[in-house]
Amino acid sequence: MATVQQPNLEGENPLVEGLERLPVAPTTLVIFGATGDLAQRKLLPALYNLAHEGGLPERFHLIGVSRREKAHAEYAEECEQAIRRFSRRAVDEDVLKRLLEDVKYVPGEFDEESVYGTLEQTLDGFEEQAGGPLNRAFYLSTAPSFFPIIVEALGAQGLNAREGAEVRVVIEKPFGTSLEEARELNRRVLSVFEESQVFRIDHYLGKETVQNMMAFRFANGMFEPLWNRNYIDSVQITAAEDIGIGTRAGYYDNAGALRDLIQNHMLQLLCHVAMEPPVSFTAEEVRNEKVKVLHAIHAPEGDEVGRMSVRGQYGPGHVAGEDVPGYLAEDGVREESTTETYAAMRLEVDNWRWAGVPFYLRAGKRLARKITEIAVTLKPVPHLAFSQAGSLGVRPNQLILTLQPNEGVTLQLGAKIPGTRMMIRPVNMEFLYGTSFLSQSPEAYERLIMDAMRGDPTLFTRDDEVEAQWCICDPILQTWEALPGPLAQYESGSQGPDEANDILRDGHSWRAI
Ligand code: BG6
Asked: What is the pTM of this model?
């Protein structure tokens, strides 16, 4: 059994005051796809960091399920290597040893009945040691085609419920590749589990900065009165990456930027900007408000798709001092693939608060740098009393919420340049996470794994929410698929395709990446 020592935080950093350790009931976590990339890079390091901070339940067990045959000890060794390599903090040998001392491994194909028999015995074994039932969390970190297969096999084995304990299933993204598939997957998952047992992951919801958007909007009286069509001119949400697709061609070439980032992460960000204040911060209230936003978004149809969205593909170029190949030359990409590595769109939220305000979304690989931000631009002041002459440009105020890399909030204001003349220039008022809290934000997966084990679904996507996201994306994807090419091209390391400017309203421009 792995027990986790509660570290003494006192005296460590006064600014982390208020951080609490939320109680988590004794749990066995089962990771399907236990040797995959996500498990190695994110899930195992997240478990280690939770253990390090005393965030895991006092009694915690880990079982890995994957195809290849290997012994428990060999799997534990792999876990150890992954943690040492990818953990955000240096490893404490005692914590690591305790976390991995009784890790179990179940080999087999996910559609093989015997795997679930062995899994049940392993789960029961831990419960015998504990002298009673333990909560169970099944984490599906496999290729998406296995999601329904695993869920149904768990049901067939009777592992979807446990008397005296809670059973939960965590499902990774992508949740379907179209509205139809998402509906079908929901149907199959919900024929085995109750919605309250299902935790659909969108790791952006676990990011501190995304959660801070709610604090920012609803814990401050200053912004909310301005937060509407009367004062806000436009909203721009960017998720730019400088990396290419790496070794993920098998997945990415079938997905593309819209499915990979916009359908889930970016629509979640949009919802956080646009949602009404929930009555309370319960999972249902928060998710109800987000679903209302999604329902208010008009999904482009027919010709509108061309006017409201743009897709592009990266060519060769130069990124971070290196020459990089174009998308079509990446390993594993289909010859003449028309998969988009960049997508941009202009959406509107047709409701009382937002009618007429454009929400611009863009996401892409191999752009100039990694930056995820939300820029809210206010309307210009009604009358400019100062002469523009000589000023470096009076600009409308902008509020920029940066999610990464330098998490924080910047308010762009007009200020007078010191001197005898009235010259105005934009200046920044900044709040930076790192400076204010002197602590590293936990990785999104730490928060999400803990919440799933605690049974709090607030930061997970509900069934109707995921379908509402697909309702917006589906018509765009269908139109793109019907018109396979040519795609707008952009040089690696650039700002993206020039065609992205075509969807902007007059007077608007994309922020520099
Ligand atoms: C994942 C996508 O969901 O998010 C990746 O599949 C992308 O393609 C990643 O790189 C970006 O996440 P983050 O947290 O680095 O912004």
From this structure: 0.92
Kindly state the DSSP code that residue 494 receives in the 8-state scheme: B
Q: In 3-state terms, what secondary structure has residue 75?
A: helix
Beta strand extents in 268-407 (DSSP E only) = 309-319, 322-324, 342-348, 358-364, 371-378, 398-404
Q: Is the bond into 486 cis (omega within 30 degrees of 0)?
A: yes
Ranking 119-128, 357-366, 475-484 by mean pLDDT, the lowest is 475-484
Cβ atoms < 10 Å from Cβ of 235: 22
Q: Which two tokens mark 222?
A: 């200053």
Instruction: Please give the distance of CA 234 from its chain centroid, rounded to a whole number.
Output: 23
DSSP H helices in 326-438: 433-437
pLDDT of 16 > 60? The answer is no
- Which tokens in the block code for residue 57? 């339940």
The ligand 1 atom at the shortest distance from the C-alpha of residue 404 is 16
For 431-454, how does the pLDDT look when each residue is reduced to its tens digit (9 = 90+)?
887 777 766 678 899 999 999 999
Which residue owns the Cα nearest ligand 1 atom 13? 204
* Cα–Cα distance for residue pair 59/357, rounded to 1 Å: 50
The structure tokens 């990415």 sit at: 252
Nearest-CA residue for atom 8 of ligand 1 = 260
Q: Could you tell me if residue 412 is left (phi over 0), alpha (psi between -120 and 50 degrees) or otherwise beta?
A: beta
Mutate to test the pocket of ligand 1, among 260, 446, 447 (most ligand atoms within 8 A of CB): 260
Report how far ligand 1's centroid is from the alpha carbon of 187 (Å): 27
Separation CA 464–CA 475 (nearest Å): 18
Cis amide bond preceding 133, omega within 30: no
Q: What tokens were used for 82? A: 């992954």
Residue 358's nearest CA partner among 429, 273, 478, 448 is: 273
Active site amino acids: 265
Identify the sign of the CA torsion 62, 63, 69, 71: positive
At position 167, the amino acid (one-letter code) is: V
